[in-house]
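Marked as duplicate of an earlier ticket. Keeping the data here for the record.
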Amino acid sequence: MTRKVKLSLKKICAFILGLAVLWWIVQANIKRFNDNLYANYEKIVDYGRVRENEEVISPVMAAIFYDDKVSVQKSITSYYNHFDNYKKRNVKMVVVPKDLTPDSRSIIRRLYAEIYKYNQVDDIALVLSTDSDVSAHIKMLKKVMQVNHIKSLILTEENLEAENIIDSYLKSAHKMIVVLADLSDGFNGKQSDFLLEETIYFAQKNFYHMEVFDVIDTKIAQSVDKDYRALLSLTNNKDDQPMAVKQQRNLRLFATYYKKEIKHYLKMNLNAEEDIVWPEKTTGNFRLFDRGWVYVRFYDEEMQEVFARKAIDGDKGVIVSLIEIARKAAMKTDAKKIKYIKISLLTDAEELSKDKDTLLISYLDQDDGIMIRSGSKKALLVADERPDDPSELEKLLRQKAEIPDDEPEENIQFYKFKSVEIEDEN
């Protein structure tokens, strides 16, 4: 065989191989096109910048003030993780939304239930700025907190007579103040501003601790301790918040709007014997195909984790990643044993500049997740997976990523992120 013939054969083979690769790419893209799986340019962490036509989401916020003068933290872990929350403390004041909507009813009911579980309250005073109908609030308090002695107090700049009654309630055992003032209202000179100022006045006067809840995320146990003055700047200073906090807020909006569809398609694909069920992209659900990082955990009825999988570093649409994870869970486990699913939507990761002898926990907020990476090995823990003992955090991450204990720290990168959870109990 001459050299010229060999070169011709090589060119033909290369041409055929090129055609085969091109055919494969075309077929793969035809399938993606038919299934409508192309990811959007947008990312889910930017969801708050775009408003759906029919989207109406009103943030709901609440706050509690509790007396903790005599409590003593038993270990440094308590200071790091803030897990010894208000549940066993003496709750004295609560600020809840004055308007009862389906969203606010749910969180207020849950908040009252937690307070009732860990506090004895016999008398409650409802503080409001106008003489309005509070029968729905009273009905909920009686039902959830089993309190029959409830009085309404009008407190305005022109009428301060209620201050003395509030003072006496705060000094008495088993009594609580409930202030009806919407924390997410903007604080633009409205009447509710005065009630919040008065609430802060009484809290500072009595040296109360405060916790604020963004109740789009209904996990009361993950509340964050805040300074009193933060209560009046939660909405006005959003532009000054760290990027991770802004992204987390956007994820909450995304989760609130799309959680039903996300749970529906995740469960529809937990059957390995059936064909994959993809959502058809429409003007109403196209943001499901925004790019983003996700992490899903599956549990049995004993709340033992049976499968977990993350989808990070890629450019796939969120719903595509979630469906692929569901299919893998169906193949790896017995779907009938799955009774509980927790979906985590992740913000962008921020690399940490960690000092060698400093605990990882020192770089994290209470709601931060943590990720470890060494070459191609990586693992993550969302906030609720972090161990109670801060000294065990790095060890647990290394084990999860299968990074040897003797791997030098200079070869390891750590990243922090925040997350928003969507939970489903079947």
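See parent ticket for discussion. The CA atoms of residues 142 and 350 lie 46 Å apart.
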